[in-house]
């Protein structure tokens, strides 16, 4: 049984390799679904662009985290000097309070940007990748389908003795099996592409609105609007000192 499995795998590999080479050198015909392949290429291009956004958004969270940490340290230094410098107590004091407020707003913004990063990461590396895995299966099935179609066509043009007829029947059966597999995966890819597009629009509509509102509120110094943005999107900040990895460690 193992020998038969290996033998079958070897024959299949040989046929597919032969088909692939003939296509590359322009000698063999290739089944093309132009509309579907255009959509697949568009998905791959979209994924590359979203990966770039994800990389930049992660860089932004890193820079914001460093800024918040610096402001926190600066606020502590101002507060300490306020206690030890009576002649400048008021000036150091209000600078300490300003840095404290900036830290709070920065942490709130980080919560929003981190939620944005997490959602884009799921879209790119799970949802899109899942569809592309089905695409790879479809492309393999297409190659097998064309390989067995070519094999059947070659046998059909040969002699029709008893042995040839038997091989032709076998080839016809194998061709039909691979045709069914190819058509099923083609339909699966079309459905997944449709649902992916709908999901992408839904996710990005929400995330881009979140990103815009949070960034705008932060740089306008509107603490109330910034906090309201997180409530609107049901984003909860972690309690300081909680024994969990920080938002940055989870990336």
From TrEMBL:
Transmembrane segments: none
MF GO annotations: phosphatidylinositol-4-phosphate binding; protein domain specific binding
Protein name: ARFP2 protein
Coiled-coil region list: 168-199
All residue ranges annotated as the AH domain in the record: 31-231
GO terms (BP aspect): intracellular protein transport; regulation of Arp2/3 complex-mediated actin nucleation
Domain of life: Eukaryota
Keyword Nucleus attributed: no
Keyword Nucleotide-binding: no
PANTHER family for this protein: ARFAPTIN-2 (PTHR12141:SF3), ARFAPTIN-RELATED (PTHR12141)
């Amino acid at each position: 049984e193992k020998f038969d499995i290996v033998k079958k795998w070897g024959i299949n590999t040989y046929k597919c390799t032969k088909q692939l080479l003939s296509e590359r050198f322009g000698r063999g015909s290739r089944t093309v679904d132009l509309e579907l392949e255009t959509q697949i290429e568009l998905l791959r291009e979209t994924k590359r662009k979203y990966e770039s956004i994800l990389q930049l958004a992660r860089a932004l969270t890193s820079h914001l985290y460093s800024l918040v940490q610096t402001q926190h340290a600066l606020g502590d230094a101002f507060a300490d000097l306020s206690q030890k410098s009576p002649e400048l107590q008021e000036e150091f004091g209000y600078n300490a309070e300003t840095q404290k407020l900036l830290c709070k707003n920065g942490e709130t913004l980080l919560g929003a940007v981190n939620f944005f990063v997490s959602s884009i990461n799921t879209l790119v590396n799970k949802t899109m990748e899942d569809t592309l895995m089905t695409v790879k299966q479809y492309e393999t099935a297409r190659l097998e389908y064309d390989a067995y179609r070519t094999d059947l066509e070659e046998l059909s043009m040969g002699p029709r003795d008893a042995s040839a007829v038997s091989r032709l029947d076998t080839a016809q059966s194998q061709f039909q099996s691979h045709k069914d597999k190819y058509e099923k995966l083609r339909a699966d890819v079309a459905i997944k592409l449709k649902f992916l597009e709908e999901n992408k629009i839904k996710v990005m509509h929400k995330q881009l609105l979140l990103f815009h509102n949070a960034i705008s509120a932060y740089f306008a110094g509107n603490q109330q609007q910034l906090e309201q943005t997180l409530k609107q999107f049901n984003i909860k900040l972690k309690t300081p000192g909680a024994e969990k990895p920080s938002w940055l460690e989870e990336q």
